[in-house]
Design a protein that fits this description.
The structure is a single chain. This protein has 127 residues and is mainly beta. The chain is built from 2 helices and 10 strands; from the N terminus they run βββαβββββαββ. The strands form 3 sheets. The chain has a 5-stranded antiparallel sheet with strand order 4-9-8-7-6, with no helix packed on it. Strands 1-2-5 form a 3-stranded antiparallel sheet, with no helix packed on it. A two-stranded parallel sheet has the order 3-10. β1 and β2 form a beta hairpin.
């Protein structure tokens, strides 16, 4: 079990995860945000702050959601976007969990975790 928070501590959470890597995406949002993400099942995240206390940002297909602290602007976790029909046609599976920003977890050695590069910049959304 890991404990995490945003920068100012207004958003706090716990997550059950055996973190063996992080994901770094090159889409326009992630490239600017700089988060290192790890996906967990929906029930692995326990919010210690009401989700309504956070700002939710949606973009692209509108199926993903970034949960951001209203005070400091840090993103501690998000709901990944669902794959488009084109992505599902080539085998991309839907994911119904959370992506945790591992940079927001206490006592994690980021340098010890392998980084998996995600080519999110090539994703297309129905328009």
């Amino acid at each position: 079990m890991h404990r995490g928070s945003c920068h100012c501590g207004a958003v706090r959470f716990e997550v059950d995860a055996d973190i063996d890597h992080v994901r770094s995406c090159d889409c326009s949002v992630c490239r600017r945000r700089g988060g290192l993400m790890f996906r967990v099942p929906r029930d692995a995240l326990r919010l210690l702050t009401p989700i309504e206390a956070m700002f939710v940002y949606r973009w692209g297909s509108g199926t993903g959601a970034d949960y951001v602290c209203r005070t400091c602007g840090v993103l501690p976790f998000r709901r990944p976007s669902q794959p488009t029909s084109e992505e599902m046609a080539v085998g991309v599976e839907p994911f119904d969990g959370w992506a945790i920003n591992v940079r927001c977890l206490d006592d994690i050695d980021l340098d010890a975790l392998p980084v998996v590069r995600i080519n999110g910049g090539s994703l297309t959304f129905p328009g």
